[in-house]
Amino acid sequence: MIPPAFAYARPTGVEEAVRLLAGAGEDAKVLAGGQSLLPLLRLRLAFPELVVDVGRIPGLRGVREEGGTLVIGALTTHHAVVADPLVRRHAGLLAAATATVADPAVRHRGTLGGSLAHADPAGDLPAVALALDAELVAVGPDGRRTVPAREFFVDYLQTALRPDELLVEVRVPKTDEADGWGFHYEKFSRVAQAWAMVGVAALVRRDDGHIAQARIGLTNMGTTPLRATATEEALAGVGAAGPAGVDGVARAAQSAAEGTRPAAEPAVSAAYRAHLARTLTRRAVLAAARMG
Amino acid sequence: MTRISVTVDGTTYEDEVEPRLLLVHYLRDRLGLTGTPIGCDTSNCGACTVDLDGATAKSCSVLAVQADGSEVTTVQGLAANGEWHPLQKAFHEQHALQCGYCTPGMLMAARDLLRENPGPSADEVRHALEGNLCRCTGYQNIVRAVLAASGAAGPAAAEPSPQEVAP
Prior knowledge:
The structure holds two protein chains of two kinds.
Chain A: E1 7-9, H1 14-24, E2 28-31, H2 37-42, E3 50-53, E4 63-66, E5 69-73, H3 78-83, H4 85-90, H5 92-98, H6 104-109, H7 112-118, H8 124-131, E6 135-140, E7 143-148, H9 149-152, E8 153-155, E9 158-159, E10 166-173, E11 181-188, E12 198-207, E13 210-219, E14 226-227, H10 229-235, H11 242-253, H12 270-288
Parallel strand pairs in A: 1-3, 2-3
Antiparallel strand pairs in A: 4-5, 5-10, 6-7, 6-10, 8-9, 11-12, 12-13, 13-14
Helix pairs in contact in A: 5-8, 10-11, 11-12
Chain B: E1 2-8, E2 11-17, H1 23-30, E3 49-52, E4 55-58, E5 71-73, H2 86-93, H3 103-116, H4 122-128, H5 139-150, H6 155-158, H7 162-165
Parallel strand pairs in B: 1-5
Antiparallel strand pairs in B: 1-2, 3-4, 3-5
Helix pairs in contact in B: 2-5
């Protein structure tokens, strides 16, 4: 279908973009890669008066290191994230999960920042950002501010970003395999390229034969991405090898759906989603701890 | 209206377009390049896949204004000097199409794959084409054609593995 009419602006810098957003208030939408916004426009689910195309603002693409942190420009495409050697070395979970987003053509255009700012709970990357304890940096009329991922996702398609703020970078603490970290993103969908029915992002740090720390993000188990907190707590101290360890992981995974409120759809009941969360969490943690 | 300049299949066009105009509508309705079909309204099917500045994009999910200053290759730009592209030849020889509706997108996606990975396995071909739907259920021959075009496909490589033919 044909999108509704809108005015279009292509700012050349972050300040200009923020000025345009501030002038239009709630009636503006930011266009980055467009892989979420354009379908919404085509299906007439969004009616912005102004579309601010930030796609050509320089300096918002690419990955760099800052000590123990990776700094990823918000406009970095999924394709670039998957291929980036720094991401692969220091944030393997992000590279692995991003490789499962949609399909190659969408990954060429879609961006990390756009995916997080769109905040679809069925999207893969919000739960990954939660598990990674990422921080999101936004620029508004009053300057920059940093929002932890835990406070960023507010409700269905809603984030802590104000209408006049632009997400400019994503800061990810390094989780190197050399430091004992293992990761896995377990995504369940019925057909290739589909959204996750449920997804589990698992990040596990092993120390001296035990799971020292586990961080688990859940995709599509509520109106926002969620952490499986009860499972994370139950995993601490569980053996990272052998039948006893595998049993311990299985027991901890039983609480993966605690505190979640998954949506019921005709083909997927809430109870089935909860079942998936428990099963996928067990698989994801075993894979992340290199136990299965 | 916004002024754009886009190079499509080697020809540069200057046009005034509405910002809401999709690239696929620009190609088809404005330039008459109807080789790129529209298959769905959800970004799922991949029929409208084109090459945009050296990487595939679904042209239903790109605004024409976003392509300003860019270089677009459509399926109509694949043949050179009256010679089919090796992928086109392979699709023809391996019976990789029935109705042909998905074929332009399949060709563009396969071309993208072979550029990054000149000798893919059957599994890699399938993953690379996951954003392109064929409703004649012709995937088997499409995979075979891409392998044949890659030059890596001897008779053994072109045969599906048992896992692939399992229901």
